[in-house]
UniProtKB/TrEMBL annotation, chain A:
SMART domains per record: AAA
ABC transporter domain ranges (all copies): 28-279
Superkingdom, natural source: Bacteria
The protein, known as: ABC transporter ATP-binding protein
Lineage: Bacteria, Bacillati, Actinomycetota, Actinomycetes, Micrococcales
TrEMBL record, chain B:
Native organism taxonomy: Bacteria, Bacillati, Actinomycetota, Actinomycetes, Micrococcales
Keyword Transport tagged: yes
Organism: Nostocoides veronense
InterPro entries the UniProt entry points to: BPD_transp_1_N, MetI-like, MetI-like_sf
Name of this protein: ABC transporter permease
UniProt entry keywords in alphabetical sequence: Cell membrane, Membrane, Transmembrane, Transmembrane helix, Transport
Length: 349, 308
């Protein structure tokens, strides 16, 4: 391990544990990430060169429909992809300047949960059904911090109180199936923030919940993020969820970023036809009675991504160039990027 | 939980009455005279026949006979068999042997079966997995008397590691080979059940969560996935234990073990109705209790099962 050789932002404390310190507030740098799945039918290119960064206290939303690669991106950062069939042929994921992909397994394991934590979509299946919730939260302290049983359980109660689970002390020994959907997601959140991670990845945290509970969970996430100055990566297909929480948005399509912008700019004026299609497909009260606009067609099969711009078969603006040349993600206005040959026209429309 | 157990115990009463009546009825509906052939070559004397019929209430109608039997049963009296020995004493001796054999067979199937299942499950599709799948298929396909005879020849006669048959003392050492043979079939089932469940649970979301928590792979698999995979396995083992306590007629005969299975078999052969009904009644009661224990254990293993 070369972490002590240079003036790297990581230091080792007495017990051999590494302390990671972000440089200039930069937590994560994902650089040209590629992920492919080797299946019997061929190689599915789930992610094809994705780059983005995340700073302290920042909320980044990764937006995209099913199969766009947003969850795979999150899993690659967490290091929980099943390899094989998944493979990362290219790219780097730097946490505090240190590449997670080349890190030894035992070192990376301590990053998971303690430095970068994750919340999953379905809290019921993501919690182990045969262990009490308090035990599962306390496991973080026992495994990472070597804490004893009673101290770690006290910590679990404290966290359950923090995420507003009523009667936390009495319910610490209850099992996941004894909680409602919203309460289960709160327990997932308590488990994720247990060790004060610098980065929190929320993969569709509210998709399985009903609308009022969705709002409560998003409010809780936002509150915790501000309180702890975490970097938050919010993975979602729900534009409504994004608007309130995110600072920046990255739109994914067929394993690539097609647009990045801050949240206000993107909602006001999208710079990619796909983003525009997404925004138009939100039901609005003032359009009552009219047919809801939808993006025609289906996302491409990742085994056979069309040449040129992957979105061209579904794009109303597609020209010949879109079917042959793949547009690079480029700066089209200050602070915003788009991967469209006609980004300026979309922007001015 | 206490309420649940009481309810289950009460439910046992009609089951015991029903099964004992059925077995009583069937045994006494068997054709033939119970006193025929009791006195060697000659027919029995009229006085003996009369005494026998009176002792066993054979002149009463069936429901009365049954009622008198149950009345004695309620006092713990299982009757006297045709040799004048109390069935209860016979069964006590034989249950010691059968119980010992069943426990040893269970130990074998749990240790070997679960280990083989885990190895196969975590190396799905690899050599170990295929080895376990093929060898368990092999074991399942061979009748137990063939395995028994092969074991006797190779392990008993050729290498002399273990005795070929079991004496009336039925020591731990003597019962080792029979336990291996008796457990072999269940080893196959336990191994396959463990493997299938482990493979399924390894894909579960909560195992992914465990990895994302920064737990070691050993802990995520060995604790989080395995704990869930053991629920159906332990249930199977529990029921298998109940079945083994009913005696293993074939294995007992091969190895000359004086167990419950052989006792019932001989009772049926000799038309010893009292012995058969007594032994089966004991068996039903034991099976019901084992069943109850398994159900309670199931609730402990899987908190989603509620006994309230």
């Amino acid at each position: 391990m070369s972490t002590t050789t240079s003036a790297a932002p990581q230091t080792r404390s007495g017990d051999g544990k590494i302390t990671y310190t972000p440089v200039d507030g930069r937590l994560l740098d994902v650089e040209d990430l590629h992920v492919e799945f080797h299946t019997e039918d061929g190689v599915a290119k789930a992610i094809n060169g994705v780059s983005f960064h995340l700073d302290q206290g920042e909320s980044l939303a990764i937006l995209g429909e099913s199969g766009s690669g947003k969850s795979v991106t999150a899993q690659a950062i967490m290091g929980i992809l099943d390899m094989p069939p998944a493979k990362i042929p290219e790219g780097a994921i730097k946490y505090c300047g240190l590449d997670l992909l080349t890190m030894p397994d035992d070192q990376r394991r301590w990053v998971r949960g303690a430095e970068i934590a994750m919340i999953f979509q379905d809290a019921l299946s993501s919690l182990n059904p045969v262990f009490p919730v308090g035990w599962q939260i306390a496991e973080m302290f026992r495994q990472h911090r070597g804490m004893n049983k009673s101290d770690s359980l006290a910590q679990a109660v404290r966290l359950m109180e923090r995420v507003s689970i009523p009667a936390a002390k009495d319910r610490v020994k209850a099992y996941p199936h004894q909680f409602s959907g919203g309460m289960r997601q709160r327990i997932m959140i308590a488990m994720a923030i247990a060790l004060d991670p610098a980065v929190l990845i929320a993969d569709e945290p509210t998709t399985a919940l009903d609308v009022t509970v969705q709002a409560q969970i998003m409010a809780l996430l936002q509150e915790l993020q501000q309180e702890r100055q975490m970097g938050l990566i919010l993975i979602t297909h729900d534009l409504g969820v994004v608007a309130d929480v995110a600072d920046r948005i990255a739109v994914m399509y067929a394993g690539r970023l097609v647009e990045t912008a801050n949240v206000y700019d993107l909602y006001a004026k999208p710079a990619h036809p796909y983003t525009r299609g997404l925004l138009e497909s939100i039901p609005r009260l003032d359009q009552k009675g009219q047919t809801l606009a939808a993006i025609g067609g289906l996302p491409p099969n990742l085994l056979r991504i069309p040449p040129g711009c992957a979105f061209n078969p579904r794009c109303r603006m597609a020209q010949d160039i879109c079917r042959t040349d793949r547009p690079e993600l480029r700066e089209v206005a200050p602070g915003r990027k788009s991967a469209c040959h006609f980004a300026e026209e979309v922007l001015d429309a | 939980m206490g309420k649940y157990i009481v309810r289950r115990l009460l439910q046992m009463i009609p089951v015991i009455i029903g099964t004992t009546f059925l077995i009583f009825y069937m045994v006494f509906a068997m054709p033939g005279d119970p006193t025929a052939g009791k006195c060697g070559e000659r027919p029995c004397s009229a006085a003996y026949i009369q005494k026998y019929r009176a002792e066993h209430n054979l002149d009463d109608p069936l429901p009365i006979q049954y009622g008198k039997y149950v009345a004695k049963l309620a006092q713990g009296d299982l009757g006297t068999n045709q040799y004048g020995v109390k069935v209860k004493d016979d069964l006590q001796k034989r249950y010691l042997v059968t119980g010992k054999l069943a426990l040893m067979a269970i130990a074998v199937e749990v240790v070997v079966g679960i280990l083989a299942g885990i190895l196969a499950g975590i190396r799905k599709g690899k050599f170990v997995d295929n080895l376990v799948l093929v060898s368990t298929l092999f074991v399942i396909s061979i009748p137990v008397f063939v395995i028994g005879a092969l074991a006797q020849y190779f392990i008993g006669v050729r290498t002399g590691l273990f005795p070929v048959t079991v004496s009336s003392k039925a020591t731990f050492y003597e019962l080792t080979m029979p336990a291996l043979v008796l457990g072999s079939l269940s080893i196959a089932y336990v191994a396959r059940l463990t493997r299938t469940n482990l493979v399924e649970n390894l894909r579960a979301d909560y195992v992914r969560t465990a990895i994302a928590k920064g737990l070691s792979r050993r802990r995520a698999v060995g604790l989080h996935a395995l704990r869930n995979s053991m629920i159906p396995v332990i249930t199977f083992v529990g029921f298998d234990f109940g079945a083994l306590l009913g005696g293993a007629i074939v294995t007992e005969r091969i190895f000359n073990i004086q167990g419950v299975g052989g006792y019932i078999f001989r009772g049926i052969q000799m038309r010893d109705g009292v012995a058969v009904v007594g032994a089966v009644t004991a068996l039903v009661i034991i099976y019901l209790f084992v069943n109850l224990l398994v159900d309670i254990l199931y609730g402990v293993l899987d908190p989603r099962i509620s006994h309230e």
